[in-house]
Amino acid sequence: MSKRQFVALLALLGLLIAIYLTLYKTGAIAELACTTGSCETVQMSRWATFLGLPVAAWGIVFYVVLLALALSGLQGSLAESRGVSLALVALTGWGVIFSAWLTYLELFVIHAICQWCVVSAILVTIAFAISWLDLRDHSRTDAALGVPDST
What is the pTM of this model? Predict the structure, then answer.
């Protein structure tokens, strides 16, 4: 499995979590399956909404974009694109920063932990690490081939 395929798989898993949490936040699901922490406390806090939308809905958008980018990076001329690697690092880096902010809020403001949020944060952190390795590999390949750095 290539690094971009792995990022796509992580994005798909994150998307499923984001959909699940959005369904709860919008009332389509009455109760969350949460064996550790207090998912409902986190999801019902004022911090679970950002710019008028559930944070989990923003997660859906994030993971759809990440999935599309990772899958597009497997196609034709984009398969060796350093630009796709840079975009993956930038997007997942933003995801790590936003997840860190949300984790801070859980720990120090809400005083409750949502296991699904923690899993999402772990997924995006792993996606960032894999994307970084993908960028490193494409940078080394370009250098070995004498391709000028155009990014």
Answer: 0.89
